[in-house]
Amino acid sequence: EVQLQASGGGLVQPGGSLRLSCVASGFTLRNYVMGWFRQAPGTEREFVAGFTWSGSMLYSKDYALGRFTISRDNAKNTLYLQMNDLKPDDTAVYYCAVTTSSTWYANGVNYWGQGTLVTVSS
Q1: Count of CB atoms within 10 A of residue 46's CB?
Q2: What is the pLDDT of residues 11-49, one digit of tens each?
Q3: Which residues contact residue 35 at a Cβ distance below 8 angstroms, ignoring those fewer than 6 apart?
Q4: 10 Å Cβ neighbour count for 1?
Q5: Which end of the chain has fewer surrounding CB within 10 Å, N or C?
Q6: Is residue 61 classed exposed, middle or buried when 0-12, 13-18 and 19+ CB atoms within 10 A define those classes?
Q7: What is the rounded distance in angstroms from the CA atom of residue 32 to the CA atom of residue 21?
């Protein structure tokens, strides 16, 4: 059974930090690339950050570049998203995802995690 278990969300004040984790199991991870999306209420799910097949990291240039860092621990089959200087607009459910596609887009995702809620508020 394919599982992507995300955790690490919570309530944080503006300017604070969180680290999200996503543990993958039930499939051959090397056949996919992993990444993160997010979805705020009333909006479409949007790409945040992900690895590419070449091993490089891709970020949403609108808001993630410079504040978010994606990383992984292959030995633990775990993907991370370090988020710094969080802003109220970062409030959303964050989803880890895997794809076989060469580009990151929501409809191209093969498997989704269950999501973890991040709330940025004072």
Answers
A1: 16
A2: 999 999 999 999 999 988 888 999 999 999 999 999 999
A3: 47, 48, 49, 50, 51, 58, 70, 79, 96, 97, 98, 99, 104
A4: 5
A5: N
A6: exposed
A7: 17
Q: Give pLDDT tens digits for 43-67.
A: 999 999 999 999 999 998 777 888 9
Share of the chain above pLDDT 70, in %: 100
- Letter for the amino acid at 95? Y
Residues ≥6 apart with Cβ < 8 Å to 16: 86, 120
Residue 28 CB-half CA count within 13 A: 3
CB count in 10 Å sphere of residue 69:
16
